[in-house]
Amino acid sequence: MGEDNYLGRILIIDDEKENTEIIKDILGDVNYHAVIASGASEAKAMIVGHEFDLVLMDVWMPGQDGMSLLDEWINAGFDTPIVMMSGHAEPSDIVRALKLGAIDFLKKPLHDLLPIVRNILTRQAPAESNQEVSGIDFSLKLKEARNLFEKQYLLHHLALHDNNIAVVAEKAGLERTTLYRKLKDLGIDKR
User: Fold this and answer.
1) What number does CATH give the domain 137-191?
2) Looking at CB atoms within 10 Å, which of 103, 140, 175, 186 has the fewest?
3) pLDDT tens digits, 35-91
4) CATH class of the domain comprising 3-124
5) Helix, strand or coil for residue 186?
6) Cβ of 40: how many Cβ atoms within 10 Å?
């Protein structure tokens, strides 16, 4: 199959070979072209002269870790969307990754990877000029689109206000208990 027929090219940066092979197979089955790098130096070599539509990067890797590579790439003007992954992420890691410029943070083992990838890659389509909210896939059911928006909205305010639930609840115009329930429903881990 020619390169042109792929739905997207995805770079997976993770030193856990077993995990990455599974992700690569899942993506390959639905026609994404996935390439694996086992660490930061290999990934840096791979992006030279190659276009990727999405990067999935583990936080913990030998040598340079994912967070510092994310920081380095974003500061260098790297505009491919980057999604961070980790099996044992603290809420502070998630907030930090999103502050640095990651567009999402996935917990390993990855469940429901395909809808997430599909979402991100369809988001890249040029936005209509009257579209106020960026990153919403208008082909989604209303509830899914609302959840996506609410998750982005709440992560933004949590990052902005240093995870202060009281401040975020006030900003969002919600009772604290409602906010906690909403965070739980959206899969945002705030203990």
Assistant:
1) 1.10.10.60
2) 175
3) 999 999 999 999 998 899 999 999 999 899 999 999 999 999 888 999 999 988 788
4) alpha beta
5) coil
6) 22
